[in-house]
Amino acid sequence: MLNFELFNPVKIIFGKDTIGNLPTLLQNKEKILFAYGGGSIKKNGVYEQIKQALIHKDVYEFSGIEVNPEYETLMKAVELCKKCKIDFILAVGGGSVIDGCKFIASAAKYKKNDPWELVMGAQSEKAIPLGCVLTLPATGSEMNGFSVISRRSVNAKKGFFSAHSYPEFSILDPSVTFSLPERQVINGIIDPFVHVTEQYLTYKINSPLQNRQSEAILKTLIEEGPKAIKRKEDYNNRANIMWCATQALNGTIGKGVPQDWATHEIGHEITALFGLDHAQTLAVILPALLQHEYDYKKEKLVEFGKNVFSLDYNSEAKIAKTAINKTEKFFRSLGAKTRLSEYKIPKKELKHIAKKVMETSKGVKLGENSRIGENEILEILEIAWPSYK
Ligand code: NZQ
Ligand code: ZN
User: Fold this and answer.
1) Do the domain assignments include residue 152?
2) Residue-wise DSSP of 94-161
3) Whose CA is nearest to atom 42 of ligand 1?
4) According to DSSP H, which parts of 201-233 are helical?
């Protein structure tokens, strides 16, 4: 096993009616920025619950954080935080709102010229403390220090990590997910599935505990995911999916093992250039990447096939290859597209995507073996392009 450090200070408050805990959690906070997205919380009763909980506080509202949170929008909130001397940010929404608020929190305390530098690798030295009410389980942002920010003027979408970005607390009430549109339910199954595979489908390193933890999340998503699409108000089903999504990217399963974030890196560029949802890009790229990297991932693909899909063939190659096919079939069974051509992305654009991925990574090759460069990305995109048969 590889050496590792584990640090995760996020307090999770999980369950029905837990938004009511906010007054206790915010006891010592005075000036609060209540930040949210495009208004879904006004339709499902969450907004009213938050307003009620904040009734005795000095509250400043900031709405309109978009899907794939936009730097220019977030900078307006940074100005508001500075002007009003905000001492706590309450992010209410999915990954985009939470990520956006992580950026606002660090940017409001950034002493140098341009807070975009934080996204490009400058260290955040201080941040306004942050709390979350999660409304869309998918990204794991509620329990990690990552944030992914977009800047549309330069077609950029990039992630950054800061130890100052961990929320102080996150409230996870599965019943607030009943109002999710089907597309977001599907996204919320695929994103954590891929987070797990990127920490699990690499090469063997004698890490049976992390392997079994990863398999448990994958199996639960395969069992519970399809039910969530059929049964919109099944509390226990939504609770199981919500906890899977948090566990998939809160740091635990990736400790001590190699990781491969190539699917995400390629996916971010597709979102930046063509506007696909984050999880839509992953459903397209992961199966193609697994095919392309078959020789390097074969041993783990066999474990995946046996332990997650219960495959039992004499041939290990057949198990590994069937596991890749089953992964794509699973995504399709949820209703996701798995090919770039299904999104009408012109084949001639593939070269441009591959080039942009390498520009964003500053030439650093991707994958657990650091072997995926521009040519390999192009080959993966070419596998992901033809229609599904
Ligand atoms: O904006 P509102 O009106 O709230 O509507 C949102 C949005 O339109 C809606 N929604 C959220 N909760 C709802 C709801 N609609 C009805 N009922 C509810 N309860 O869902 C839409 C999508 O929301 P968004 O927050 O964009 O989705 P998601 O949680 O999938 O977040 C995606 C973003 O997170 C980043 C992605 O790149 C993308 O920018 N990621 C962040 C990560 C992290 N911080 O660790 C890791 C991930 O890999 C990912 O990259
Ligand atoms: Zn993701």
Assistant:
1) yes
2) SHHHHHHHHHHHHHTT--SS-THHHHTTPPP-----EEEEESS-SS-GGGSSEEEEEEGGGTEEEEEE
3) 139
4) 208-230
Asked if residue 6 is part of any domain, the answer here is: no
The pTM of this model reads: 0.98
Average pLDDT (121-130) is 95
Within this chain, do residues 204 and 244 fall inside the same structural domain, yes or no? yes
> In sequence order, what are the residues at sequence separation of 6 or more whose Cβ sits closer than 8 angstroms to the Cβ of residue 387?
339, 341, 342
Q: For residue 153, what are the CA distances in angstroms to 50, 63, 70, 303? A: 34, 21, 10, 44
**108 and 185 in one domain?**
no
Confidence band for 255, pLDDT divided at 50, 70 and 90: very high
Q: Which residues are in the CB-under-5-Å shell of ion ligand 2? A: 191
* Nearest Cα residue to 268 out of 278, 253, 258, 259: 278
Ligand 1: which of 34, 36, 99, 150 to mutate, judged by most atoms within 8 Å of the beta carbon?
Answer: 99
pLDDT at 206 > cutoff 90:
yes
User: What distance in Å separates the CA atoms of residue 197 and residue 290, rounded to the nearest whole number?
Assistant: 10
Domain of residue 368, residue span: 181-384
**Ligand 1: which of 43, 166, 184 to mutate, judged by most atoms within 8 Å of the beta carbon?**
184
Q: Within 10 A of 315 (CB to CB), how many other CB atoms are there?
A: 10
CA 186, 162, 265 angle in degrees (round to 5)?
A: 45
125 within domain boundaries: yes
Q: Are 35 and 92 in contact (CB under 8 A)?
A: yes
Taking the centre of ligand 1 as the mean of its atom positions, its distance from the CA of residue 346, in whole angstroms, is: 26
212 and 163 fall within a common domain: no
CA of 89 to the centre of ligand 1 (A): 18
Residue 232, pLDDT score: 85
Closest C-alpha to ligand 1, atom 48: 139
DSSP state of 47: H
Q: For the segment 32-77, what is each residue's pLDDT rounded down to a tens digit?
A: 999 999 999 999 999 999 999 999 999 999 999 999 999 999 999 9
The residue among 125, 149, 176 that closes a domain is 176
Position in ligand 1 atom list of the atom nearest CA 144 = 45
Q: Which residues line ligand 1 (CB under 6 A)?
A: 37-41, 44, 67-68, 93-97, 99, 135-136, 138-141, 144, 146-148, 176-177, 179-180, 184, 187, 191, 249, 264, 278
